[in-house]
Amino acid sequence: MNNSVLVVGSVALDDVETPFGKRNDSVGGSAVFFSIAASNYTKVKIVGIAGKDFPQSTLDKFQERDIDIEGLELVDGKTFRWGGKYHDDINNRDTLYTDLNVFADFKPQIPDSYKDTPYIFLGNIQPTLQLDVLRQLTSPKFIALDTMNLWINIALDDLKEVIKKIDLLIINDQELNMLTGELNLLKGLQKIHDDGLKYVIVKKGEHGAYLSHLDENSHHPELFFVPANPVLEPTDPTGAGDSFAGGFMGYMTKSGEISFENMKKALVHAAIMGGLCVQGFSYDSLENANDEIIEKGLESLKKLVTT
Amino acid sequence: MNNSVLVVGSVALDDVETPFGKRNDSVGGSAVFFSIAASNYTKVKIVGIAGKDFPQSTLDKFQERDIDIEGLELVDGKTFRWGGKYHDDINNRDTLYTDLNVFADFKPQIPDSYKDTPYIFLGNIQPTLQLDVLRQLTSPKFIALDTMNLWINIALDDLKEVIKKIDLLIINDQELNMLTGELNLLKGLQKIHDDGLKYVIVKKGEHGAYLSHLDENSHHPELFFVPANPVLEPTDPTGAGDSFAGGFMGYMTKSGEISFENMKKALVHAAIMGGLCVQGFSYDSLENANDEIIEKGLESLKKLVTT
């Protein structure tokens, strides 16, 4: 069996405005960004829901890139839509509207052909749905999960339940604070590891990301850090976090080695995919990735931190 | 002649409250933090002003650490005082009061024995005073300058005048934005290099720091990045930026090589001194630095970013 990665998440059409331009009906959603990024490394199986208005050109793109869409339901109605406007300081944005549309009734159904997928990414959806997905799998080997402040606020118990069943939590620094009640990074990580979670990635956007696990001797968090390569024209940051996760899980799936050492390498690929994503609208820059671009990214991130 | 570094800056007594405790009459000021940090590497010559209330124990400490205080005026009156309270999120603080006292009439006089010092750090004081200092020097080899938002707002022309005469500007990311009118790091750096400045360090506090110069071929900024090692108990961040500068200039002075390559190494020492500073009130943690602690810091920062 060739390794592959399964992703469950949103599929969306976005209206996005940034200081660098504007795009309507911009194809997005966590499952889409994740899939395109991960497909630079490995076979991807997508679980999601979209309306009949979802563009055929993207479905074709999935096929081209060996992204299995058997689990992508196409139903009557409109695709999930999000509208957002980024500030001049592109780290801040306003959500203009969120129309759940067909995503409101999403009940992830895992096709039989997906059930033995070894690598799993639970994109940012309701924790009870993430639990539902896990119940349908037969032999997961490595499960990563993304979440957001909304679920920490309104579904904390469910979220804690699903966190017990995963290997890696991918969150941002504010979410770590909210989840653990600790403002200090090391204290927050210590708490979450002491509760039984093996690996955590803390995303800090343009400030890079930490990977953490418990050091076997000290029982304190041992960290690895990857910076973000500064981007001259961050055209559209939408989907950067999901592309980051796609780079990470894509590399993990391809390499097939579950260890802290290997995750360090995966984190560098995550940073490359996150950095690529912001350089275009939708998945424009991600889909242009190739071995040469990835190799250049690896070199440039290494040079950035090597004395 | 042995290399040495000259620092001009404030000498202060602070009343500091942080989530980890409180200290009154805490010895501080940019020249003090810089000197203690740099004295871990090289001979330091301090230029500043203090009142008769300045503690003898710190003057003794300077002597112990080969910090020359011929240029430290001790005059009738009170030492500069600052009172501040840090928030639970220790990245934010409120200034409770600022009493300039004897610092209000500071006119830096460079003693004859200091005038041929090769390495110069102009701490954050009025740009016209920084210019005054430069006029009194006979043979500076490498000049670094720190400044703050206040001078960018009220003395921009003077500041630009002194920036023309220096080799390295050390500022934080917000100050770079203010100084260049660019929100984007790369665009801000490009502007400042195009205006003739060779080296820039952009400090981002707990998010690390960038060192930049113009790449000879592309004429675009070439960057080196050092992360900040996460600190479990950031007891008191006061002086971290000046300790960071002290580590940088201390290493540069000791090594005596002015090149981008060598500055990368100096930046790692800067991060170590900045990280040490926050682990105690005043210069408590800085003065405990030794070869072993510095070596451990180097190893741990290297491990943090090495796959």
Topology of helices and strands:
The structure is a homodimer of 307-residue chains.
Chain A: E1 4-8, E2 12-18, E3 21-28, H1 30-38, E4 43-51, H2 56-64, E5 67-75, E6 80-86, E7 93-99, E8 119-122, H3 127-135, E9 142-146, H4 149-154, H5 156-163, E10 168-172, H6 173-180, H7 185-194, E11 199-203, E12 209-214, E13 221-226, H8 240-255, H9 260-277, H10 291-305
Parallel strand pairs in A: 1-4, 1-8, 2-6, 4-5, 8-9, 9-10, 10-11
Antiparallel strand pairs in A: 2-3, 6-7, 11-12, 12-13
Helix pairs in contact in A: 1-8, 3-5, 6-7, 8-9, 9-10
The CATH homologous superfamily name of chain A equals: Ribokinase
The largest pleated sheet of chain A is described as: 9 strands, mixed
CATH class of chain A: Alpha Beta
Could you give the order of the helices and strands of chain A? EEEHEHEEEEHEHHEHHEEEHHH
Supply Rg of chain A: 18 Å
Number of helices of chain A: 10
What's the domain count of chain A? 1
Helix percent band of chain A: 25-40%
Low confidence ranges of chain A: none
Using the coordinates shown, work out and report the CATH topology of chain A.
Answer: UDP-N-acetylmuramoyl-L-alanine:D-glutamate ligase
Counting copies of identical and different chains, the oligomeric state is: homodimer
**Strands of the biggest beta sheet of chain A: in what spatial order?**
5-4-1-8-9-10-11-12-13
User: What form of chain A results from the Cα inertia axes?
Assistant: globular
Question: Could you tell me the strand content of chain A as a percent range?
Answer: 25-35%
By secondary-structure content and strand pairing, the structural class of chain A works out as alpha/beta
- How many strands of chain A? 13
Largest interface: A-B, 29 and 29 residues
Average pLDDT across residues of chain A?
97
Distance between the termini of chain A: 42 Å
CATH architecture verdict of chain A: 3-Layer(aba) Sandwich
